[in-house]
């Protein structure tokens, strides 16, 4: 058994505000993990000044030296993955297994950008003149603001912070109010790895009270946000109205579909559907919430999914037998239950789950059938363990339905037919397509960014491409 870490100590890494008290709760037990004093807009401004003042120094540290700090931070995180995983499960609720996977991936992400800092350079080009060389050099932007959600409370802060620091920017980060301790832990590790004071700064407080102070600050050169569509749109608008333009990167919600083709293997399709819809309690931007199923295999697939779900265990993420942890909080479970009601009102048939069991946040995995295109559970993001099934006649209808919502995050196909797979990969309007894989799960070395309303469609995250967002490139014509 991994022991509970000492939570209140971590709040030291956030600094202390004089605003409202924020109670950080464990969703599985309702235990109070820590009480955090949030910051006022004035206190946030002071933190932004600290970050801004640290920029000249940090950007002048040679990039391989910056890389060494990130590599060291990755090593520390890797060596403490069990206790950090436990903290994540206590704070967010996901199973310990999933938490440890997230911590491991975050450690690798720190190392990946640490290594890339060693080759943080530009390109060279030939010139038409004999006495000239053309090249580009890459420069950091300044102070960048990162605003992150609660569902991947460590990996999203890390996949923004690591490229930002590798490129020489200083950081202001506002974690989700439900999961600030994970970001405090990140700061603890970065400082132990040798990051100088003032380079990575946490501000805590509700997005509605301090968000505007962060992204409208003249001292902030770029804003990277992951969260919901309405908040993302508000940020885009507010940043656009600033006198000095800032870069904006937005990764937002989804309503992802997976198509199960008639050629697919039922056991595999069942496993991937369940993992994609109910893994991480359905609280993933890449989760599948619409299952489009070819009519020829519908009955078999439905029976196999129901059979698996009947053995599915919902409970505390710390228990190794748990398949699905709690919903993150009361507000989210009430949204989930509202949508379960809307599904029934709109005429879909509830065939599994739909209720909480034992504890108000332990929601059953919930399955609907006869879901049609006009229904709210087909069109709107729920962000919970609710899956709707729709029968389709062929690949064309599957692609059309997949694309019929405003979102364009992720889509999946389970099939053994290469012609259908190719049609699907080419035809779906999404940033990530998974073939014979669950829709959940992204690898850090590949670029990632959603289409349509699921993002700003500006800059990719992850991969080497993430460095582009945090960098400006100068073109030099060097003659002699
Ligand atoms: P959210 O309500 O939009 O919050 C995200 C972050 O923005 C939090 O730090 C939040 O702070 C802050 N915020 C809220 N209102 C704000 C405002 N007016 N100004 C500035 N910041 C504000 O989203 P969430 O509920 O945390 O996360 C779930 C959403 O994130 C889902 O829609 C999901 O699909 C999306 N998501 C997308 C991706 C992706 O990569 N595309 C990944 C994960 C999640 P508080 O916590 O203080 O409210
Ligand atoms: Mg919490």
Descriptive notes:
It is a single chain. The protein is of the alpha/beta class and 480 residues long. Helices cover 39% and strands 20% of the residues. It folds into two domains: 8-252 and 455-479, Aldehyde Dehydrogenase, Chain A, domain 1 (3-Layer(aba) Sandwich), CATH 3.40.605; 256-435, Aldehyde Dehydrogenase, Chain A, domain 2 (3-Layer(aba) Sandwich). The strands form five sheets. A seven-stranded mixed β-sheet has the order 12-13-14-11-10-16-17, sandwiched between helices. A five-stranded parallel β-sheet has the order 7-6-5-8-9, with helices on both faces. A three-stranded antiparallel β-sheet has the order 3-4-19. It is globular, with a radius of gyration of 23 Å. Bound molecules: NADP nicotinamide-adenine-dinucleotide phosphate and magnesium ion (MG). NADP nicotinamide-adenine-dinucleotide phosphate is lined by residues 147-152, 174, 176-178, 206-208, 211, 226-228, 231, 234, 251-254, 285, 381, 383, 450.
């Amino acid at each position: 058994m991994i022991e509970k870490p000492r939570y209140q100590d971590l709040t030291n890494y956030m600094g202390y505000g004089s605003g409202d008290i924020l109670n950080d709760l464990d969703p599985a037990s309702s235990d109070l993990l820590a009480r955090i004093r949030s910051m006022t807009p004035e206190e946030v401004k002071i933190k932004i000044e600290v970050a801004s003042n640290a920029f000249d120094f940090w950007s002048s540290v040679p990039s391989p030296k910056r890389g060494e700090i990130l590599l060291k931070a990755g090593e520390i995180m890797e060596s403490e993955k069990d206790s950090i995983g436990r903290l994540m499960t206590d704070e967010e609720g996901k199973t310990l297994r999933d938490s440890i996977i997230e911590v491991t991936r975050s450690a690798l992400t720190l190392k990946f950008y640490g290594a890339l800092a060693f080759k943080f350079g530009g390109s060279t080009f030939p010139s038409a003149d004999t006495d000239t060389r053309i090249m580009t050099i890459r420069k950091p932007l300044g102070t960048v603001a990162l605003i992150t959600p609660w569902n991947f409370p460590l990996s999203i802060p890390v996949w923004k912070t690591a490229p930002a620091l590798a490129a020489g920017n200083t950081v202001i980060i506002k974690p989700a109010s439900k999961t600030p301790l994970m970001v405090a832990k990140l700061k603890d590790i970065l400082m132990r790895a040798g990051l100088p004071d003032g380079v990575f700064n946490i501000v805590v407080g509700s997005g509605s009270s301090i968000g505007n102070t962060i992204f409208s600050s003249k001292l902030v050169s770029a804003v990277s946000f992951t969260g919901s569509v309405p908040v993302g749109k508000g940020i885009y608008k507010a940043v656009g109205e600033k006198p000095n333009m800032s870069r904006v990167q937005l990764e937002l919600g989804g309503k992802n579909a997976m198509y199960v083709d008639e050629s697919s293997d039922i056991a595999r399709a069942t496993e991937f559907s369940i993992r994609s819809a109910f893994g991480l309690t359905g609280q993933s931007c890449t989760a599948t919430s619409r299952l489009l199923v070819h009519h020829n295999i519908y009955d078999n697939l439905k029976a196999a999914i129901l059979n698996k779900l009947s053995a599915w265990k919902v409970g505390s993420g710390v228990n190794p037998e748990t398949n699905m942890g709690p919903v993150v909080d009361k507000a989210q479970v009430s949204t989930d239950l509202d949508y379960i009601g809307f599904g029934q009102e709109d005429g879909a048939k509830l065939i599994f789950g739909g209720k909480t069991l034992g504890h108000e946040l332990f929601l059953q995995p919930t399955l609907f059938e006869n879901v049609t295109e006009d229904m709210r559970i087909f069109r709107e993001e729920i962000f919970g363990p609710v899956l709707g099934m729709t029968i389709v006649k062929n690949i064309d209808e599957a692609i059309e339905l997949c694309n019929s919502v405003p979102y364009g995050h992720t889509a999946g196909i389970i099939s053994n037919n290469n012609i259908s797979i190719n049609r699907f990969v080419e035809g779906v309007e999404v940033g990530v397509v998974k073939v014979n894989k669950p829709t959940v799960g992204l690898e850090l070395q590949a670029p990632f960014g959603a289409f349509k309303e699921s993002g700003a469609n500006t800059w990719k995250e992850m991969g080497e491409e993430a460095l582009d967002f945090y960098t400006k490139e100068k073109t030099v014509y060097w003659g002699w």
